[in-house]
User: Fold this.
Amino acid sequence: METTEFIWFDGKMVPWQDAKVHVLTHALHYGDSVFEGIRAYDCGDKGSSVFRLKEHSQRLVNSAKILRMNIPYTAEQIYDATIETLRANKLKAAYVRPLVFVGYGEMGVNPGHNPVNMIIAAWPWGAYLGAEALEKGIRIRTSSFTRFQPNTLMSKAKAAGNYVNSILAKIEAVEDGYDEAVMLDPQGLVSEATGENIFVVRDGKIKTPQLTNTLGGITRASIIELARDLGYQVEEYPLSRDEIYIADEAFFCGTAAEITPIREMDHRTIGAGHAGPVTKHLQQEFFKVVRGENPKYQNWLAPYTID
Ligand code: PPE
Assistant:
């Protein structure tokens, strides 16, 4: 990975190589940490801006609440610290990773009185599923691993432990020659991918699964609003895997993946086998919004400049 100079660590800017923890850190053993993935975009003459920083900061606080972690910062402090981290590293564009974790103290499942620590790292990160993927689309499979139901792990928390399920699905997909996996919920309905939400387009209408078993993706919410504003009909709907097979278009979305078209699933070509017109339209409009080229969505952007 491309490293940068500083990591924000419990309120201080620490040199990248010194941002370390003890090997008996609670979260390392039991997975009790929550995180965010945020992108900052270069807006040319207008400086830079972080996409939906307010919503990401609030989701981090919410994730900690779900896990009963006493996060020592407010959403406003997380917002400010994120901008501070980007500026300290002179990053005009970046992927930002805040992480709140149960720290070093006592061992045993009960986090008890262990400290809760927080870091914010930022680094340049290009297209998540490859630059070509944004254009040509990716090949996916239905995972053999089921997404958790809401009374096992809770999908509204962006918790590290939840990602063990994603990791199993991702390794399986990649080893079998696919780019990504989509997971079904315990009822057999489509939930989400290992790190993205999913949308399909059929007969001009856009559909996405309801949020029962999935993370409330901020990109997903933005696309729903943007698509409706562009005049598309968008439905949140219990989606079955065969509806993806017969869709005209399908795409994944997420902070890292942005809008990535799906060209094949379980050996069925989706639509024309490349990014369809609605996907391309949404991609184009999404990139305009994040780069500050659409004043209507200015309130989604947290602007900053590099000295
Ligand atoms: N579902 C999952 C499971 C998920 O991890 C993400 C984000 C989403 C949906 C989309 O959420 P949002 O980013 O708010 O639109 N995945 C993050 C982690 C990727 C990684 O490999 O790390 C991300 O995109 O930042």
